[in-house]
Amino acid sequence: MLERPVLAVDVVLFGLQAGALAVLLAPRREAPFRGALALPGAALAPDESLLAAARRALAGKAGLPAAAAREVHLEQLGAFDGLYRDPRGRTVSVVHLGLCREPLPAPGGGAAFHPVREVAPGALPFDHGQVLEAALVRLRGKLRYTNIAAFLLPETFRLEELQRVYEAVLDRRLNRANFRTKLLRIGLLARAGVARGGLQGGRPPHLYRFTRGDLEAEERDFL
Amino acid sequence: MLERPVLAVDVVLFGLQAGALAVLLAPRREAPFRGALALPGAALAPDESLLAAARRALAGKAGLPAAAAREVHLEQLGAFDGLYRDPRGRTVSVVHLGLCREPLPAPGGGAAFHPVREVAPGALPFDHGQVLEAALVRLRGKLRYTNIAAFLLPETFRLEELQRVYEAVLDRRLNRANFRTKLLRIGLLARAGVARGGLQGGRPPHLYRFTRGDLEAEERDFL
DNA sequence: GCAAAAGTGTTACCACTACACCCATGC
DNA sequence: GCATGGGTGTAGTGGTAACACTTTTGC
């Protein structure tokens, strides 16, 4: 039997920070690239599921509070086999896409959320630059035909906040009036009261909540 | 260092057989489930890419002619970590979706294409039933916004054949006239001559070819 | 009252559906 | 000429984009 490749997981955890899309990066504690900012990851333990390993990476390397690591939305992005070498041998990484609700938890151990627009393409070690790009493409795609945006927002939110999520991820402006009608038409939003105060002037907005909060609904593309 | 999980690849290879969607199944040559029909797979070699391993599985276990195995369209579906056990230990499989042009090559070693509709849900070993279902969902999805159908057809084809691909995969009838206008509007098809003879009666149809034959074009959803 | 932000309505346009009709070939 | 299948045109419908307008709050 030949030597087995190392199986690892990495996580691209997105969150909203000051209205912009941000990604969690943690300094590497081991060679190679020791000290460099990278996507948090971990080697798969023998009797652990891929998703469990991803949560462990968030709670461990990235220093996310345990409650936050448990509540993060995670889904698999795919396996990456860049043939780079690790001290332990050849590595294949199963990457997961994570989404974190606003307000963002405070990571520890030097990890932090970085605005995606400010992460230079070649700044990340290994193939993490390409991995980040693939995660962005997936997120943009799913925004169009699922309720995945729900996982970037608090339980209840204003429609204007939801629109900002779409604009931050798709990186383009959307028409306010049409966004309202479209999103309300598809019937995935329920009113959840009215925002009280906190805003200067203006009519107080309704708050909304996604129905089917847990699952992802597949409807016709709605943007 | 704890024991490492085994990393394998499996392939869901689809093709068209008598106008119906078919999947390649091969009898297992090793325990467990020795002799049972299953998706062809292989353990990942230490310095082999995932795609290369998938092609090796097709040429080896499934007995596909070398030329056919080389020309098959392959893309990654995802990693599956059903915690089933192999004599070698816990296994994680990176599954690939494959598409094979008409006419189908003749596999060897007992492998054969089976109409998807006739594969009973629980008939396959391991989690291969769920894997097959996931591959179908992916294929249906991609049919809507890419030119992936090209990889199920010969280089040139009649529009009516293309429509049959869509109908076979989506499992529903489509309107002939609207299918024509829609597919021609998106500008991914180029005329490639006229079919000569071979048909009983009727006007001889134009043949078409996908432009951008290699890449997959992403356009607005077009069906 | 005025500014600010939420929420609604109107119109032109474009894509999709369904269906009818025309075209070119073999027999 | 007639059956057969390829290919085209058209009217109705519904969603989308752009934009103007109304409503409700704070000061």
Describe the protein.
- The structure is a homodimer of 223-residue chains.
- Helix content of chain A is 25%, strand content 28%.
- In chain A, strands 1, 2, 3, 4, 5, 6, 7 and 8 form an eight-stranded mixed β-sheet that branches. A three-stranded antiparallel β-sheet of chain A has the order 9-11-10.
- Chain A folds into two domains: 6-143, Alpha-Beta Complex (Nucleoside Triphosphate Pyrophosphohydrolase), CATH 3.90.79; 155-210, no CATH class.
- Chain A is α+β, with helices and mostly antiparallel strands.
- Chains A and B meet through β5 and β7 of A and β5 and β7 of B.
- Chain A binds a DNA duplex (27 and 27 nucleotides) through α5.
* CATH topological fold name of the largest domain in chain A: Nucleoside Triphosphate Pyrophosphohydrolase
Largest interface: A-B, 24 and 24 residues
CATH class of the largest domain in chain A: Alpha Beta
Task: Report the structural category of chain A.
Answer: alpha+beta
Q: What is the architecture of the largest domain in chain A at the second tier of CATH?
A: Alpha-Beta Complex
Total strands of chain A: the figure is 11
Taking all residues together, what is the mean pLDDT of chain A? Answer: 89
- Secondary structure tally, helices of chain A: 5
The biggest beta sheet of chain A reads:
8 strands, mixed
Q: How would you describe the oligomerization state of the chains in this entry?
A: homodimer
End-to-end distance of chain A: 52 Å
**Coarse morphology of chain A:** elongated
| Low-confidence region ranges of chain A | none
CATH homology group of the largest domain in chain A: Nucleoside Triphosphate Pyrophosphohydrolase
Strand and helix order of chain A = EEEEHHEEEEHEHHEE
